[in-house]
């Protein structure tokens, strides 16, 4: 191999090494897809119980306890929470009355509009408490919004990179406006398919009929005429 060919081989190898170095991301892992992706992990969602404590009465719920349950149910519906739990104390002289009152409280919440599948009864140890209350509540999720600051000179773009707070305001606004912060933790489960409608469509398909729904007058796009 001549001296010129050797020099060309060395330069070519150096160029390949340079390209490989540019392609690697280092030990810190892959870089964010966009400059705004870095703020996705800055929103923290926490859950804390929102509950009311009801004194156990042998005769059932008092008027004030009914008002407390109504207010709790309103907050539960507004928060779009998944489960409303009625906790009855186990142990003590009032344990039987607490169990009966728990059933009454669940029935009242369902009659007041709570989904039947979302209200359940559970228990907790009284731990020697003489008058353990009936605890009714749910987990309320809140979002901790990132604080945006350190706005540098936006005209200084010599390195052609996004400034440090790019995307922070949008992320903070979205986290503040979301109806249920629990949605930020992951998607909701899909509703079950309509088996009856699916059966009707399959029967029409097997018979060679049109599977679409019948068209009515409200979907023909015609402009209504005013009767004079």
Automatic annotation (TrEMBL):
Leader sequence residues = 1-23
Can you say what this protein is called? Pilus assembly protein CpaD
Question: Polar residues compositional bias: what residue ranges?
Answer: 210-221
Tell me which domain of life the UniProt entry assigns to the organism this sequence originates from: Bacteria
**InterPro entries xref list:** Pilus_biogenesis_CpaD-related (IPR019027), Pilus_CpaD (IPR013361), TAT_signal (IPR006311)
Presence of the UniProt keyword Mitochondrion in the record = no
Q: Which residues, by range, are in coiled-coil regions?
A: none
Q: What Pfam families does the record point to?
A: Pilus_CpaD
Keywords from the UniProt entry: Signal
Q: Where is this region: Disordered?
A: 205-228
Lineage of the organism: Bacteria, Pseudomonadati, Pseudomonadota, Alphaproteobacteria, Caulobacterales
């Amino acid at each position: 191999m001549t001296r010129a060919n050797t020099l060309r081989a060395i330069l070519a190898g150096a160029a390949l090494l340079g390209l490989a170095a540019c392609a690697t991301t280092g030990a810190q892992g892959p870089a964010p897809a966009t400059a705004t992706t870095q703020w996705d992990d800055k929103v923290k969602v926490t859950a804390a119980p929102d509950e009311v404590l009801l004194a156990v009465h042998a005769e059932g719920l008092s008027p004030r306890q009914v008002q407390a349950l109504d207010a709790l149910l309103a907050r539960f519906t507004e928060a779009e929470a998944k489960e409303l739990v009625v906790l009855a104390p186990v142990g003590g002289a009032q344990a039987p009355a607490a169990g009966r009152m728990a059933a009454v409280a669940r029935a009242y919440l369902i009659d007041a509009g709570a989904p039947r599948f979302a209200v359940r009864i559970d228990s907790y140890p009284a731990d020697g408490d003489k008058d353990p209350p009936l605890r009714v509540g749910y987990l309320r999720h809140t979002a901790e919004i990132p604080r945006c600051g350190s706005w540098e000179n936006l005209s200084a773009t010599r390195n052609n990179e996004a400034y440090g707070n790019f995307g922070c305001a949008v992320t903070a606004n979205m986290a503040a406006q979301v109806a249920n912060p629990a949605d930020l933790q992951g998607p909701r489960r899909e509703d079950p398919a309509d088996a009856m409608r699916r059966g009707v469509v399959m029967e029409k398909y097997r018979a060679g009929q049109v599977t679409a729904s019948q068209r009515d007058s409200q979907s023909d796009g015609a402009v209504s005429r005013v009767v004079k």
